[in-house]
Specification:
By secondary structure, this protein is an alpha/beta fold. The protein contains nine helices and seven strands, in the order H-H-E-E-H-H-H-E-H-E-H-E-H-E-H-E. Its main location: plastid.
């Protein structure tokens, strides 16, 4: 019980000692509450602790702020030997502050003009080592052979053997050639993942100028960058694919 209360305090208003500034705020309201503790079945030293937080403790629409509180300092907290987040339930009022994806499978079907059957797609292989020209050849052969789309893999970004702009140009050339050859709408997921947010913006803007309707990012870019690219995609009427790499 004491450990769960300590976790609740550390993840909200409490600190390691008593401070007079507690008198300047409504600590009773803002301090998280450990309202229930249950033993884990068939164990003698493990427990489920249920902790509630006031909604005002979290910035609206910020995954970074949410995770900093819920899975932040408490996971290095000496009051517990080990800690694991089992579940989290969020109020609808808070969930509605997140925009979420701008498009889903219905929009993708509309833009690809494919209905009544599953999409048929694949990833370019080998994912590393191809030149831009050969990469584009693989894209063309796959799309002309019957695929609806191909995609970049998670770790193909802008390496010495093929820079990102070269890949984008050859890939879109392949998409356009396959459309002309088959009479069908085709596509390619262009990975705009990069080291900085500015570089991702540059790559996404270039992909848009080339005429692609979908871009891709990797999960490893982090919460803030994911949200930022989702907002960019919404504003630019672009489908955004999030690769699970992470």
């Amino acid at each position: 019980v004491e450990a769960s209360a300590a976790v609740a305090g550390e993840s909200s208003t409490a600190t390691w000692t008593v401070v007079w500034t507690d008198l300047l705020t409504a600590c009773d309201l803002y301090r998280a509450k450990a309202y229930k503790v249950d033993a884990v079945p068939n164990t003698s030293d493990q427990y489920f602790a249920y902790i509630s937080y006031d909604i005002d403790l979290f910035e609206e629409g910020s995954i970074a702020n949410l995770t900093a509180s819920i899975i932040g300092n408490v996971f290095g907290f000496k009051a517990v030997k080990a800690l694991r987040l089992e579940d989290m339930r969020l109020p609808v009022a808070y969930l509605k502050t997140f925009q979420g994806p701008a498009t889903g499978i219905v929009v993708e079907r509309e833009r690809m003009d494919k209905f009544g059957r599953p999409f048929l797609g694949a990833t370019v292989k080998p994912k590393l080592g191809l030149s831009g020209k050969n990469y584009g050849r693989v894209v063309y052969e796959g799309l002309r052979g019957g695929l609806d789309f191909l995609k970049d893999d998670e770790n193909i970004n802008s390496q010495p053997f093929m820079r990102w702009k070269e890949r984008f140009l050859y890939s879109m050339e392949a998409v356009n050639r396959s459309i002309a050859a088959t009479g069908e709408v085709k596509g390619h997921y262009m990975n705009v993942t990069a080291a900085t947010q500015e570089e991702m913006y540059e790559r996404a803007e270039f992909a848009k100028q080339l005429g692609t309707v979908i871009i891709m990012i990797d999960l490893v870019i982090g919460y803030t960058a994911i949200q930022t690219m989702a907002i960019w995609a919404r504003r630019n009427d672009m489908i955004l694919h999030l690769h699970r790499a992470g």
